[in-house]
């Protein structure tokens, strides 16, 4: 599975697989054609950026600006399924479609297979939920919960069982010196506030 996934990613392909949160689509974050294919498959508005997945908290600073405030928040929320919105690091080689208004969304995956994929690839993957734009996001379950149109449009389906939580990650903006929840998900705003006290 690993070699097959890496081969597809290196050839500008899109992979459908279960993540630690929901079923997702991934592509090489440094490959412009691959990122564009995700937008085409989903019918997603080009102005809506995708997030990137990294394999460890140490890799967050590779793509996003991290000051003392950001670092303290990430440490306090360690292990939680949170997509951090940070100021994008200048000079990093990600597709411009992964950056919006100078910011990038970064999440540390906890899925062992995805961690291995990212480590072998050598950099982040672009990621998004496996659904058509504005359609219902597939909940927990096997690959059959993903729309057949999505399944037939991707280059590879990794069917290794159910996804993790069946709920989106929480999106937390740390780019302006305060913690602001942009999207509720598997970590509640109340839990975030408690952990950041």
Please name the defining characteristics of this protein.
9-stranded mixed β-sheet, 197 residues, DHBP synthase, 7 helices, alpha/beta
Task: Write a structural description.
- With 197 residues, the protein is α/β, with parallel strands linked by helices.
- It has one domain: DHBP synthase (Alpha-Beta Complex), CATH 3.90.870.
- The chain contains seven helices and nine strands, in the order αββαβααββαβαβββα.
- It has a nine-stranded mixed sheet.
- β8 and β9 form a beta hairpin.
- The chain is globular.
- The mean pLDDT is 92.
- Please tell me the overall pLDDT: 92
- Tell me roughly what share of residues is in helical segments: 25-40%
Count the DSSP helices: 7
Query: Which CATH class?
Result: Alpha Beta
Tell me the domain tally.
1
Which architecture per CATH?
Alpha-Beta Complex
Q: Give the name of the CATH superfamily.
A: DHBP synthase
Over all CA atoms, what is the radius of gyration?
16 Å
Overall morphology: globular
Indicate the topology:
Elements: H1 2-10, E1 15-18, E2 23-28, H2 32-42, E3 51-54, H3 60-63, H4 68-76, E4 82-87, E5 103-108, H5 112-121, E6 125-129, H6 148-153, E7 156-157, E8 170-173, E9 180-183, H7 189-196
Parallel strand pairs: 1-7, 3-5, 4-8
Antiparallel strand pairs: 1-2, 2-6, 3-6, 4-5, 8-9
């Amino acid at each position: 599975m690993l070699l097959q996934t890496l081969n597809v990613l290196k050839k500008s392909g899109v992979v459908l697989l279960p993540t630690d949160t929901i079923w997702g689509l991934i592509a090489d974050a440094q490959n412009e054609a691959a990122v564009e294919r995700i937008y085409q498959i989903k019918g997603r508005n080009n102005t809506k950026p995708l997030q990137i997945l990294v394999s460890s908290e140490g890799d967050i600073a590779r793509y996003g600006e991290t000051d003392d405030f950001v670092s303290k928040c990430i440490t306090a929320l360690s292990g939680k399924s949170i997509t951090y919105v940070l100021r994008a690091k200048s000079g990093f080689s990600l597709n411009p479609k992964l950056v919006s208004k100078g910011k990038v969304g970064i999440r540390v995956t906890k899925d062992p297979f995805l961690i291995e994929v990212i480590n072998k690839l050598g950099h982040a993957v672009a990621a998004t939920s496996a659904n058509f734009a504005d359609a219902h996001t597939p909940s927990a379950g096997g690959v059959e919960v993903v729309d057949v149109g999505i399944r037939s449009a991707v280059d590879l389906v990794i069917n290794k069982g159910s996804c993790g939580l069946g709920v989106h990650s929480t999106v937390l903006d740390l780019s302006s010196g305060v913690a602001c929840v942009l999207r509720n998900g598997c970590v509640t705003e109340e839990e975030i506030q408690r952990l950041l006290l």
